[in-house]
Amino acid sequence: MLKDFFSLLFPSVCAACGNTMTKNEYAICTLCSYSLPKTNFHLNSNNPVAKSLYGRGTVEAATAFLYFNKSGKVQNLMHQLKYKGNTAIGEEIGRQYGKILAQHNGFNTVDCIVPVPLHRKKHQQRGYNQSAYFAKGLAASMDKTVVSDTLCRKHYSDSQTNKTRMQRWENVKDIFELTPTANLCHQHILLVDDVLTTGATLEACINALQKEQNVKVSVATMAYAAQL
């Protein structure tokens, strides 16, 4: 009753459309969840995410949940998640996509989920890692473990926004490394991030992860930006 009382005074609103949600909705209303532009890339092994990583490290499977379009609902969601502290968005998108991936042979064999890490300085500034919340939601639906202490960003780098493809690659080249306590031998890892643009960040992470013995890597992102 107390929860219902407070919901009357401070109603929850959908992060995508701004409309008031019902008590059974979380972060994103049912209408927006249904209408968000889904890629269905997990159904096609030769999808744009997989193609963007060809020749840049061995990847078992690759996918993204949503299409990212400027000034659209997905951009609004990513902005609130990344810069406004609305971490519930990452969890909810992860839960929704995790239910789908758990039924797909290319992804239901992963052993653990590894979010792309932030540099310590960036983490302190923002207060959280948005990709870790996506990983948390995926793990809840897929019944997997999130491993956040095995990969680290050893150098602070500028934002990738407004950089060219080559500048993005140079910006993240060789900046990731395994931690001394990493123990991923013989594991199938699901590497996750927020938005895939050029794939430079994921490439750098994949190269670091595959320094472990017999590691398999698959990739999933919240969104895919065809052109930025």
Features:
two-stranded antiparallel ribbon, 228 residues, 16% strand, disordered N terminus, alpha/beta, globular, 36% helix, 5-stranded parallel sheet, 7 strands
Rg computed from alpha carbons, rounded to a whole number of angstroms: 17 Å
Helix content: 25-40%
Arrangement of strands in the largest sheet: 1-7-6-2-3
Briefly note the structural class of the backbone: alpha/beta
Q: Helical region count?
A: 9
Secondary structure topology:
Elements: H1 2-9, H2 30-35, H3 48-52, E1 62-67, H4 73-83, H5 88-101, E2 112-115, H6 120-126, H7 130-142, E3 145-146, E4 151-153, H8 165-172, E5 176-178, E6 188-196, H9 200-209, E7 216-224
Parallel strand pairs: 1-7, 2-3, 2-6, 6-7
Antiparallel strand pairs: 4-5
Helix pairs in contact: 5-7
How do you describe this structure in short?
The chain is an alpha/beta fold. It has nine helices and seven strands; from the N terminus they run αααβααβααββαββαβ.
Note down, in words, how this protein is organized:
This protein has helices at 2-9, 30-35, 48-52, 73-83, 88-101, 120-126, 130-142, 165-172, 200-209, and strands at residues 62-67, 112-115, 145-146, 151-153, 176-178, 188-196, 216-224. It has 228 residues and is of the alpha/beta class. 36% of the residues lie in helices and 16% in strands. The termini are far apart. The strands form two sheets. Strands 1-7-6-2-3 form a five-stranded parallel sheet, sandwiched between helices.
